[in-house]
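Researcher: I'm preparing a figure for a lab meeting and need a structural model of a single chain. I don't have an experimental structure, so a prediction will have to do for now. The sequence is pasted below. Please return the structure as tokens so I can convert it later.
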Amino acid sequence: MNADVLVLGAGIVGVSVAVQLALRGRKVVLVDRRDPGEETSYGNSGVVGRSGVTPMAFPRSAAAFGKVVRQQYPGARYQASALPGLAPWLFAYWRASEPSRMMASAERLAPMTAASVEEHRRLAEMSGAEHLYRDGGWMKVYRSDGGFDAAKRQLDLARRYGINAVAMSAGEAQAAEPHLRPVFAGATLWTDLRSVSDPGGVVKAAAALLPRLQALFVTGDARTLRAVADGWSVDGVDGPITAREAVVALGPWAADVLHPLGYRIPLAVKRGYHKHYAAEGNATLTRPILDEERGYVITPMEKGIRLTSGSEFAARDAPKSPLQLDIAEKDAKELFPLAARREAEPWMGSRPCLPDMLPVIGPAPRHKGLWLAFGHQHNGFTLGPPTGRLLAEMMTGGEPFVDPAPFRADRF
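Model: Understood. Here is the structure written out token by token.
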């Protein structure tokens, strides 16, 4: 089988890249070992848009860092056995989280994030997935007066960056979400966002566009990617597939392909867990809710109320350690009347993270025809469609809609 472009990885990023290239007339083959939207793109909180001013940074204050070290902040936990291998990456992450550097990363990422709602809307309209989206933003609740006061001080900064967010008293927040329990001091509502009721369904709907665009999805092993005389080749279930160009959009598995090619891009993962729950009685939830000081999100999904944990620092392929989700479940039941679990086992996934909190989007430095799109940290679902557009513009000679320089692979 021959094509113009191989796209490796059928998450929201890879599917978006494949659709955008096909729209521009490229013959595309999308390759993954699983069906579209069944890995990291399935297991997120379903938020689309600018959910804050800064990316998810390493704690810099002694108090916050101490809580993480002592495993007292449930939003960030670690497996001690993984720390020696993660130490260089964690140090680079800590350095990049210095306030001025963190704000520089935020400013570089802002044009992509600002475009995300509209790019999602365009993709959803083409794929018939608009019914999975809802307006209403997302809410962050703060259990302490100090946390709420600090959040209110951030709102002026948000407005300077063109982000619409408002402070709400506890009573105002409960009027907006009547079934929240009064365990918090106040809330902020970030109104520019949309959210979805089935992130995996969004990806599958977008992937279903490919046959209409004369593109294919093929089950195959991305780890077999190799350079050949006329481009790149990968093994599909029915034999090798060859193309002039290849895109690595494999999220947390990108290093499995790039290391054999000599690349040492500092990619690590933050693992996360989720479960779905019924709600007690007639309790409802209309938008995602972040319990900021406890580090979890509850989101209404088609399968129930999804409880999504914070970050676990561990080896990507280590066995599950769902203690973090158990702690989050206890905290979430204080905030909202969760009822029976709808799955016996938690889902676990890995967020692909680079230490400067920015993705890699663009050409591989040392191989002609090899392109990269991964490392979106906690924003992969949000940034999938704008990443697809940006990379397709770069690959086809179009004018990039944002400056791609901050995302180049050779910055490390």
